[in-house]
Structures are given as C-alpha cells and as structure tokens.
Amino acid sequence: MQIICNINHKEYNLEVEPSDRVIDILRELKIRSIKEGCGEGECGACSLFFNGKLVNSCLLLAGQMQSAKILTLEGLYEETKIVRKNFEESGAIQCGFCTSGFILRSYDYIKDNGLEDEKSIKDALDGNLCRCTGYQKIVDAVVKSIK
Amino acid sequence: MKYLIAKSLKDAIELREKYPDFFLLFGASDVALKIKKNQVDGIIDITHLKELSYITKHKNSITIGALTTINTIVSNSYINEFTPILSEASKEFASHQIRNIASLAGNIANTSPVADMIPPLLVLNTKITLLSVKGERTLFLKDFIIGFKSLDIDNEIITSFEIEIQKSQYYYKKIGSRAKLNIAKLSLAMLKNEDGYHISGASLNPYVQRFTNLETLLNSEKYNDTDIQIAIEKDISPSGSFRSTKEYRTKVLFNLIQDALKRFNR
Q1: CB pairs under 8 A between A and B
Q2: In chain A, how many domains are there?
Q3: Domain that holds residue B202
Q4: Is A44 on the interface with B (CB under 8 A)?
Q5: Looking at this predicted complex, what is its ipTM?
Q6: For position B179, what pLDDT does the model report?
Q7: Which residues in B have their CB inside 8 Å of a CB on A?
Q8: Do residues A112 and A141 share a domain?
Q9: Are residues A47 and A100 in the same domain?
Q10: Are A56 and B45 inside 8 Å of each other by CB?
Q11: What is the tens place of the pLDDT at every residue in B27-84?
C-alpha cells in the first residue's frame, strides 16, 4: 500500500504493508527516539504525536498513517528544550530507554496547561513506565519545567 | 491479510455487508494486539470517519458518536455535569496514550467481561444506534450485549450512544492490583434516581450485565446483609482467573455495595 504522510515536518511517500506497526516503519526510517518496550501499549516508550495526539506507536498500524501528521522527539527538539534540560539536571534520566516517551508526555502535559501539583503530574504520566528512577526525579523535572 | 479503508460512512457499511467477519479498526488499541497474535483475517479501517466523533447535548439527553475517544469524554463538560459516572470511569480507563485513541464503541464492541465503559453505560440506560445497508436501528445497550463475546449485531456498525439525562446519585469504583493502566479485578457502577437503583459491574460475569436481583432488593428498602449476600450470589458468576479469585470478587463486591449505600444515605 502506498502511504503519503508527514513525519517530523517532512513529506514521505512510503510503500508499506498496512498491517505493519508504525513503530517498525519509523525505526526503519532511522527515527530511533521511539523505543519498543512492552509492545502492547503499557510502557509508553514508543509514544509519538499522531495528528496532534500522543499515542503508542506499537499499537498503531501503517494503514492508519495515510495523510497523517506524525511528530517524534526528533521533530520537537526545539519545543522540548526546557523539558529536556530539566530532565538532565534533575537526574530524571538513568538508562534512558523510557526518556523520549516521558519527555514527549511531559511536554504534552505542560502544553495543555497541566497543573504543577504532584498528584496531577503522576496521573498525567500514567501511560509511561520507568524502571530506574522511581519516578520522583521525573516528577521534579516536570514541576521545574512548569515553573 | 486484507486491509480495506473506508472513506465514508456509506463506504463503511457497504464493506461491512460484504465482509461481515473483518475487524473494524479505529484506534487499534485492541485490534493491533490481535493482529500480533495472528487472530485477524481482514480489517476495515474506519480511522477516517470523523463524522462519528462528537458529543451533543439535547434538552433531555446526550448523544455520543461511536468513535469519540475516551479522552474526549474525560474532558467534555456536558458529560462531567450530566453523566459524571461516565467521566469517572473514563478517567480510570487504561492510560493517557490509550485514552487518546481508544473509542467508546471499540470498548463496547470488544465485549470484554472486564470492559470499563459498559457498567456505567448500562446503569445510565444507554441506547445504542446501529447502521447497515438495510437501515438504522436503536436498542438498549443491555439488549445489545447478549452473551460472552456475543452481540445482537447483523452486518452493522455502531454509530452512536444516547443517554437520557436524569437527576441521580452515583457511585463508581474500580478495583485492581495497581493504580494506573489497571485491568479491573472487579468494578461497581451504581446509580440511584427516581426509578430506584441501577447496578452493574465488570469482571463479575461472562459478560457485563445489570444486577437485577440486587436492584429489586434495594428498591424494596427492606433488607439485611444476608439478603444482600443472597442477591449478589444470584446476580454474579465470577470466574477465578489469574487476576483474582471468585471468593475475593464476591466479598469485595459486597463491601463496595455497603460503601455505596452509606454514601447514598448520607
């Protein structure tokens, strides 16, 4: 199937198998910020913006990419500058596997005027798992970014 | 695997008629996993049917388009104000990323015994509208879900849900092993209005249904704890699974009902 879509501000014309997963197609295009963790929509390491909404790319099919606008961390490098800096300075990054997913979700939350109390932030991060930090440093980084 | 894309609603129902066994695909949060397990022969992709994504408030009711996402429901002010039990269940649904793409109709059509959205919709006496090449029909959701993974559906697609607005008290609780991305060990949705109690819960029967014995008992206003126990036994047939045991589910449902009654009578 022929797919025309926009990935990270660039037009793509791709030949895909429609039942293939978006995560696999993007990683083949060398877009590597999206990671496969659980492969079933629980860990959020493969999160990306699909027509403006943050979703898990392991649960998204190539057929759905037709005329879609897709943004990953690579395409939002400038926009996420403050969040990235605060993740680095707060020690919110350890092994780094979950980081791009967390940065996109944090950016998404802040962009939508998310509150700075810990409960709201933890609720907002419900679709991202981190096995290193224990989350507190990630929450600290989000709080700092809101301020 | 065949993958067909519906460009319009008309397109979708025609494809439905031609390929009744294909999966309808919108958010893919359930279907993508089925594809991974090779359980899917064909797909009708309805990702582009934007006309089925809306929430409209009428004088005495709210209509929700079939492909409205769970997050759209979470943030909708009409739903928050007039059917708060639906808001509450939506907030506890999966995770942000899944709520962004999963549709209300998808959760119903998957017909899981654990489906989060079915209990609140059942206690709200929700009506569901279906469309096929033969035409449109509307029925109560309770008559639509007729058995384990079994629906009263005939080459149709779900187009909308209609909820009558009524003044009511409500109680919703979802119990599981973790706070987020939680698949329920059990849930209880309970509503009390002029007609009396409306009660349902997930993961307590092979398919989600109303607890009619409990409703009748509580409406009679003459009952004790033993009566409640007996009604529960009649209304539910939980299985023991890796998520929980039959005994736990039965006991916790009893406790939740006590908790709800306390709140209603406060």
Answers
A1: 87
A2: 2
A3: 169-265
A4: yes
A5: 0.97
A6: 86
A7: 1, 3, 5, 25, 27-29, 32-33, 35-36, 40, 43, 45, 47-48, 69, 71, 94-98, 100-101, 180-181
A8: yes
A9: no
A10: no
A11: 999 898 998 888 999 999 999 999 999 999 999 999 999 999 999 999 999 999 999 9
CATH number at residue B38: 3.30.43.10
Give pLDDT tens digits for B214-255.
999 999 989 999 999 999 999 999 888 888 999 999 999 999
CATH code of residue A98: 1.10.150.120
Q: Name residues whose C-beta falls within 8 Å of residue B261's C-beta, 6 or more positions apart in sequence.
A: B218
| Rounded alpha-carbon distances, angstroms, from residue A105 to A36, A99, A129 | 16, 10, 11
A56 and A89 part of one domain: no
Contact present, B186 and B119 (Cβ < 8 Å): no
Cβ pair B158, B105 in contact under 8 A:
yes
Same domain, A32 and A89: no
pLDDT (tens digit, 9 = 90+) per residue, B159-203? 999 999 989 999 999 999 988 899 999 999 999 999 999 999 999
- Span B131-154, pLDDT tens digits: 999 999 999 999 999 999 999 999
Q: How many structural domains is chain B composed of? A: 2
Q: Is A63 on the interface with B (CB under 8 A)?
A: yes
Contact B124, B162 (CB under 8 A): no
**DSSP H helices in B83-144:** 84-91, 96-99, 104-109, 118-123, 141-144
Chain B: give the shortest CA distance to residue A88, in Å: 24
Give the total residue count for chain A: 147
- Chain A interface disruption, residue of B35, B96, B103, most A CBs within 10 A: B96
For residue B262, give the amino acid letter: K
The residue segments making up the domain with residue A27 are: 2-76
Of A76, A91, A120, the residue that ends a domain is: A76
CATH of the domain at A55: 3.10.20.30
